[in-house]
Design goal:
The complex is a heterodimer of chains A (114) and B (608).
Chain A: H1 5-20, E1 25-26, H2 27-37, H3 46-58, E2 62-67, E3 74-79, H4 81-103
Antiparallel strand pairs in A: 1-3, 2-3
Chain B: H1 7-12, H2 16-20, H3 30-36, H4 41-54, H5 58-77, H6 82-89, H7 92-105, H8 109-137, H9 146-155, H10 164-174, E1 185-187, E2 197-199, H11 207-216, H12 218-228, H13 245-252, H14 266-272, H15 281-303, H16 306-323, H17 329-353, H18 359-371, H19 381-394, H20 403-410, H21 418-423, H22 426-439, H23 443-459, H24 465-470, H25 474-481, H26 488-493, H27 500-527, E3 557-561, E4 564-569, E5 599-602
Antiparallel strand pairs in B: 1-2, 3-4, 4-5
Helix pairs in contact in B: 4-5, 4-7, 8-22, 10-12, 10-13, 12-16, 14-20, 15-16, 15-17, 16-17, 16-18, 17-27, 18-27, 19-23, 23-25
Classes of the chains: A alpha+beta (114), B mainly alpha (608).
């Protein structure tokens, strides 16, 4: 199952930032991790990932660097301090939302690590 | 297939910052990046398509291209087919659009300000050009024909009440339009022709020829006297071509050529047909006729013909009275000048040849002067019309100065005026028109300011001559303080005003001086001596004891020394100096800097 666009618009950046919280990653790696770790639910059209990364970069939440040392030049993204704060804030929001959903009987799963 | 880029291409694809660092990097060479990309052709084309559609800066495109190439290479390496990788990527159009939006958001604040600055500048340029177009298309329209309005009452006058036909006959007979080498004029200073001419005097060697000329043209002089006895001048005014036949000949002479204005532009027509530009050639002719009459007065005195002398003086007064009700200020001023000429002639006649006239004749002359005593103001009606006419020719429907209006306005400026220089070019004028429209007051504001100033001028109408001279005029202060650009038309037209009250009051005082002297002469004839004071003459010889307008209070004064009468005011110093004028006295001017001395009205100096 894939998320509707509107839900994805809110969840996508948070998911990307969460993936980057564990270390820097390049574009395709993020695509794969999103699809795999969310069991396909957060798999997004790849054409929207890069604009999302550029937007997060424009907001100062992530920063990129070009690595020429590998077999091909790759652009790696990492979370900034501002991005870490934003990630923490967004996670709190999602937790509150999920709790509310649970109380309404819409969701019945525990959110770990939030 | 990878190709080594040429030097020219490397130069063209090296960013400026690398140039500054002395490096020929060719970093912006997208073609080299695509050539070097190890991708199947369809994927490469998709990357090219996305990158091209982003329409980003070249360095941004390079960045996106590198990232997308790496993306597809990773996808292929992880075992996806080209088709699968392209399908997973999604819609390239949508991708390009989102990438462009996000990358632009990523640009520096300086770049964003720069771009916004250019956008604002562009919008302003568009607005400016639109304003210039609107102002160029917004042509002023003449809705009120002020010249027709001016001429309407003149045209309503019955033919028999019009003096002009008699004057025309006299002018043509005397050949007055051909004044050069005229037998009645002599050069004031033959060495300096610019000093102009004066009427020939009996003491001049040219006098015998002048006498012969006057006798030969007795009919023409009779026509002037006949015309002057009519109640109105009866001549309409207009621009070139308004008059024809004998009217044109009498007003302009034989060589007059009417300029062809059929090819004039709309702006030129608007400019040349204003009420301000109306021609008044009759004023020169009337002035000349009055000079002819003064020559004839001299001849009549020589002939001992007092009756003819006073008939000539009455003719000059008649001409003055015909100009008095005319609406244009300059016509009234010339009328005032003719009245002053008649006054001076009477003043001189009384001084040297009083015996030529009987008491009744002198009393009659005094009555003629008394008839002019209420001439204490000048009508500014036509001057207001001139301004309103000018305004309707420079402003458009938007109430702003138009391109055509600016051309019209500039024709009233000196050739050296920079505003005129800049508006001579139609293109430049059009280009500058929004600025002109912005800095010039709008039509309503211009008219309101004009009416405010006219109101101030009318507030001065109760001031005495002394007050006019000594008190600072609020009108003149306001005109001085006008914003010279915003109210340029007002600054152009109004400074000449404000003097009129002083002129009219000085002329009235001079006439009163002559009236008092005539009354004293009549008293002398009746009693054998001059009166002791002015009050003695009232009411039998004089309607009232005229106030001394040069002083704060009191009436004009009389003094008799060695049988010579002097009529005078105390002057601005309020001090009776026994009828002694200041050293540099210009009759009958009352000047602020002439602090010591009296204001002598009789005897007047001979007319130059």
């Amino acid at each position: 199952m894939k998320l509707e666009r509107e839900l994805m618009r809110g969840a996508g950046p948070l998911a990307v930032m969460q993936l980057l919280a564990t270390g820097e990653k390049y574009g395709y790696e993020l695509v794969e991790r999103l699809a795999r770790d969310s069991r396909g639910i957060l798999a997004m059209g790849q054409s929207t990932l890069y604009p999302m990364l550029y937007n997060l970069e424009a907001k100062g939440l992530i920063r990129s660097r070009l690595d020429d040392t590998g077999p091909r030049p790759r652009k790696y993204y990492r979370l900034t301090a501002k991005g870490e704060k934003q990630l923490h804030h967004d996670k709190q929001q999602w937790l509150a939302l999920t709790t509310a959903m649970q109380q309404l009987g819409i969701a019945n799963v525990s959110i770990a690590g939030a | 297939m990878s190709q080594t880029p040429t030097l020219r291409r490397r130069i063209a694809t090296t960013p400026m910052r690398d140039w500054i660092r002395g490096r020929l990097t060719g970093r912006m060479d997208l073609r080299a990046i695509y050539d070097a990309a190890d991708l199947p052709e369809p994927a490469k084309q998709l990357v090219q398509q996305v990158v091209k559609r982003t329409r980003l800066h070249q360095l941004e495109k390079v960045d996106v291209a590198r990232e997308l190439i790496a993306h597809f290479q990773d996808a292929l390496e992880s075992g996806h087919s080209v088709e699968q990788a392209m399908a997973d990527f999604g819609d390239p159009h949508h991708a390009a659009k989102l990438i462009r939006r996000a990358k632009k958001r990523n640009r520096s604040i300086i770049w964003k300000m720069w771009a916004r600055g250019w956008q604002v500048m562009g919008a302003l340029v568009v607005l400016y050009v639109l304003a210039a177009i609107v102002l160029a298309l917004d042509k002023p329209v003449v809705t009120v024909d002020y010249i027709a309005k001016l001429n309407a009452p003149i045209e309503a006058v019955p033919q028999q009440d019009r003096a002009w036909p008699d004057y025309r006959q006299a002018i043509l007979a005397l050949r007055l339009p051909w004044e050069k080498d005229y037998p009645l004029w002599v050069e004031r200073d033959p060495e300096r022709p610019t000093t102009g001419s004066r009427q020939v005097q009996p003491s001049d060697p040219q006098w015998p020829a002048a006498v012969a000329y006057l006798r030969e043209h007795a009919d023409a002089l009779a026509a002037i006297r006949r015309g002057a006895s009519k109640p109105t001048l009866g001549l309409t005014v207009g621009h070139e071509g308004h008059w024809s036949g004998d009217d044109d000949l009498a007003l302009f002479g034989e060589d007059h050529v009417i300029p062809d204005t059929s090819h004039d532009s709309y702006a030129e027509q608007l400019s040349s047909n204003t009420l301000i530009n109306v021609l008044l050639p009759h004023l020169t002719r009337m002035h000349a006729m009055s000079r002819v009459m003064t020559c004839d007065i001299q001849l009549a005195i020589g002939d001992g013909d007092g009756e003819r002398a006073v008939a000539d003086i009455e003719a000059i007064i008649g001409m003055a009275e015909q100009l008095r009700p005319r609406r244009i200020l300059i016509e009234q001023l010339v009328g005032l000048r003719l009245a002053a000429r008649a006054d001076m002639q009477l003043n001189a006649l009384l001084q040297d040849h009083a015996v030529l006239l009987g008491s009744n004749q002198w009393a009659q002359q005094a009555h003629h002067l008394a008839r002019l005593d209420d001439w204490d103001s000048l009508s500014m009606e036509a001057e207001s019309w001139m301004f309103e006419d000018f305004v309707q020719r420079i402003y458009g429907h938007t109430g702003r100065l138009t391109t055509t209006g600016m051309q019209v306005f500039s024709t009233y400026l000196d050739q050296s005026n920079p505003l005129r220089t800049s508006t001579d070019s139609r293109l430049l004028n059009t280009a500058l028109s929004p600025i002109s429209a912005a800095v010039f007051a709008p039509q309503d504001d211009m008219l309101a300011k004009f009416r405010e100033l006219i109101g101030m001028l009318q507030q001065n109408s109760h001031q005495t001559l002394r007050e006019v001279i000594l008190q600072e005029s609020t009108f003149e202060v306001q005109v001085e303080q006008l914003n010279r650009i915003r109210y340029a038309p007002l600054c152009l037209l109004m400074p000449g005003w404000g003097f009129e009250r002083r002129t009219v009051l000085q002329a009235r005082a001079a006439r009163r001086g002559t009236m008092i002297a005539i009354a004293a002469e009549l008293y002398l004839r009746d009693t054998g001596s001059y009166p002791a004071d002015l009050q003695t003459l009232v009411p039998r010889y004089l309607p009232q004891a005229y106030p001394d307008e040069s002083a704060t209070s009191g009436t004009l004064l009389l003094k008799v020394t060695d049988g010579q009468l002097t009529v005078y005011g105390r002057g601005l110093d309020n001090d009776d100096d026994g009828g002694t004028p200041p050293a540099d006295y210009t009759w009958p001017r009352l000047d602020q800097d002439q602090t010591d001395g009296d204001w002598v009205l009789y005897p007047a100096p001979p007319e130059d």
